[in-house]
């Protein structure tokens, strides 16, 4: 049985497994959300320097990752028009290539882009609120970047969407979504009078109300206005507190890409203060990944939920099908960047120590499952090769050689 995101959370909270987090101090002024951007930049700069030192030391021991061949992932707004266009063109190329997934496994997977969506749908309940949440998505995003490069001739790196910036400037005013040829496509067509999205409406927890955004309909202009979303929905939250799912989310269900960019959701949940808190407060990866995804009953959807729900629309608000919106990868690259900054504050402990990998193999441990270990494999169906988690803990080792700027 498929259950909606918050319904699963409710189940667990009712069992009392998770305690609600202590509420942080709240502020009515927007000022910290601006000044904390500088604080994050400074931590990101420290992480960059720490990574440089690690790479130089590893190089002396014969590592192939060196500062001369390292890939640097950059924030979308810092790319030139040519770079933005070449990223978008590569994504469109992936969407034009046939799927590797056989129809017997996922009849709705029509394109190479869909291979990634199908595998995410297939594994949703064993890759979120699990011990492998961060490593699974790190390698998923990297496999996608590799596919763009190896199969579509892209020579750049995976860009990221810095929600701290759009929390202040407005996500619907960002150049990521301005609808030009140099964007990830526009907002959805405006639908007036949309009700709030209500998370956890049918659970025992206090519901979370998310204001609808400035779109709601099909993406109007830009590269993905003609895109076909082929898979899902599996648990799509809609304004008004309802949700939709089809019987088989791996079946073919072609429809337009919808967005509902919500400045309010971005500003409330994925602002510089919440990002900074997520980097500085948690001392174990368990606390880090729980804060990031939102502790059930804690009244906060975390910066991970904040990014997803500020994108909104279909499949943006569907935890299973969310990679069906190509902006997913800019969001998850930022998630990975926050993890990387957190790891670089204490690299040996936070990449390989006992606090670096915690959690079990099932969504909120329902049903109860074994603890995730470094030797466990993460799998990707037809999107790419499986890998052991121990190879995915550092962005400078195993298959990886990248940093964020
Ligand atoms: C962006 O969203 C705000 C509401 O947060 C709205 O007032 C504004 O008109 C929107 N701008 C665009 C360009 O859609
Ligand atoms: C920014 O995030 C913090 C922490 O999550 C939250 O308390 C605050 O209300 C948010 N700021 C705004 C302007 O919503
Ligand atoms: C799983 O991890 C938890 C918390 O880190 C620990 O208390 C527990 O003993 C572990 N269980 C097993 C079977 O190793
Ligand atoms: C879904 O997962 C199952 C079990 O691991 C696997 O056999 C199947 O091929 C996967 N399907 C897709 C579309 O990835
Ligand atoms: Cu995911």
UniProtKB/TrEMBL annotation:
Stated name of the protein: Tyrosinase copper-binding domain-containing protein
Keyword Metal-binding: yes
Organism the protein comes from: Cylindrodendrum hubeiense
Domain of life: Eukaryota
Signal peptide (UniProt feature, chain positions): 1-19
Upper lineage: Eukaryota, Fungi, Dikarya, Ascomycota, Pezizomycotina
Stored Gene3D superfamilies: Di-copper center containing domain from catechol oxidase
Domain Tyrosinase copper-binding: 128-145, 325-336
Entry keyword annotation includes Isomerase: no
Keywords, alphabetical: Metal-binding, Signal
An MF annotation (GO) of this entry: metal ion binding
Short name of one Pfam family: Tyrosinase
